[in-house]
Amino acid sequence: MNKTVKIIIALIVCLAVGYSASLVTRPSVESWYPTIEKPIFNPPNWIFMPVWTVLYIFMAIAAALVWDRIKENTEEVKKALLFFIIQLILNSIWSYLFFGLKNPMLALIEIVLLWLMIYETYLKFIKINKLSAYLLIPYLVWVGFATVLNGSIWWLNK
Questions:
Q1: Taking the CB of residue 144, how many other CB atoms lie within 10 A of it?
Q2: DSSP class of residue 73?
């Protein structure tokens, strides 16, 4: 399987995760989310979809670049991709906790775990393909910001 096919598969998986999370997010953004207090630095709602789309594309390319090295370093690549899959699952769970269950505290605990797992994935990826790790940096930064935002929302609405 060539690199292009791997990128396409990874894109489908990552964008499917994003889409499934949006199915839970969208109704709450229209009903519950406008009713809660948010910090002054809360971005406008329209910014989230384009940012997440770019991040999912970067994540997919990063995963595919690592996957493409599987013949060179099978065990390390498998371990790195396992970390990637775990963080992707945690990524999707956050939307269900925050928007589905409307539970910012539980979502805050989970997003801290998510950030740590993204960081661990970054550490695994950088040993295999530096570009793949660099593609995760915007994701790390955004989830760091989202963690502060989530914590602030929890604090303001507890």
A1: 14
A2: S
